[in-house]
Amino acid sequence: MNTVQLFLFAYLTGLTVAGLFSAVAEALVRQPVGFREPFVSENNIFASLAVTGFGGPAMLLNDTLAAWRAGNFRSIGLAGVIALVNAWALALGIVVMQLVWAMVL
Predict the structure, then answer these.
(1) Taking a C-beta distance cutoff of 8 angstroms, is the pair 55, 24 a contact?
(2) SS3 per residue for 49-99
(3) Pairwise CA distance, residues 33 & 3, whole Å
(4) What is the mean pLDDT of each run of 10 residues along the chain (105 residues)?
(5) Is the bond preceding 57 in cis, omega lying within 30 degrees of 0?
(6) CA nearest 21: which of 101, 103, 105, 93?
(7) How many CB atoms lie within 10 A of CB 64?
(8) Beta-carbon neighbour count of residue 20 at 10 Å?
(9) pTM for the model
(10) % of the chain exceeding 90 in pLDDT
(11) Which domain holds residue 44?
C-alpha cells in the first residue's frame, strides 16, 4: 500500500469502528450516544475511557450538532469540531489497525 491508501484505509477504519460502536451502544441503551450518563460516568473511569475512545467521534458530533441546532453553537465552531472528529477517526483507525496487526503477528 502506498501512503495515501494507508491513510484513507486508517481513516475509513476509524469511521467504521466509531460508527459500529456507537450504533451498538445506542441500540443497547436506547438513547443517542453523548458525553453523559450512561456512556461517561465518574464511577467507572476505565469503562468511560474505553467508550469515549471508541465512540468518541460520534459522541462529539452528536453533542455538537444538538447544540448547533439549539442555537448554542456557531457554524465556525461546528466546522472546527468536524475537523476534530475527522482527526479523531483517523487516530482511532491507526490504533485499531495497530491492535489488529499486533494480534496477527
Answers:
(1) no
(2) HHHHHHHHHHHHHHHHHHHHHCCCCCHHHHHHHHHHHHHHHHHHHHHHHHH
(3) 33
(4) 92 96 93 88 90 93 94 93 97 96 92
(5) no
(6) 93
(7) 20
(8) 13
(9) 0.88
(10) 78
(11) 3-104
